[in-house]
Amino acid sequence: MQVLNPDELDKFAYDALDDTKTWEGVPERKIGTLVLNQAPDNYFESTEESAFAPSRLVPGIEPSEDRMLQGRLFAYADTQMYRLGANYQQLPVNCPVAGVNNEDQDGAMNTGARKGETNYEPSTLGEVAEDPKYKSVRLPLSGTTQQQAIHKTLNFAQAGDYYRSLSAQDKDDLITALGTDLGRVTNDANKYAMLSYFYKADSDYGRRLARAVHADPARVKDAAAKLQD
Fold it and tell me: Are residues 95 and 185 in the same domain?
């Protein structure tokens, strides 16, 4: 994984929280190994009932202010709730191994076995005390509520960096896949517009795709020269 501190997010020429971008110069660190060592014994219980949402985090891990992630925090959880019911987190495949101590109460298929009477906080009854060490960090934010495009993009440079990071075989496979689709485009202007984008990202990328779809390389190069990142 790659890790940045919040105060490092603005050091790039692009928005580091734009999830179409790669973080150049940020070293990867190994944090563990995921081993898939068996198939489920009961496909429905282990697979169909499993519910994933980025908002379901253990203490110590919190979401960033990435726009896409922020939308998915509630959207994914809502989807699972609609699909499996309000208490889907109590299903065996989803419930934590550690003990649960919260105020969730009632609802269809609730198996929490709560014995208290309050499902709200604060309460003078104090059945479940809040532990301040589990509060989220206070991260300062700046910006506006106006919806607008990300202003630091570097779309072509990023696409070129990605292409150059691929192995020779991966580049071949990418050209084959893209060339097959672009070869079916009948609108000449659209086809050359797309080819110019790839050429702007990386000249080898653009030339190879132009050859793959039998396009004029000179025309592609001229169109790419007029583009700005």
Answer: no
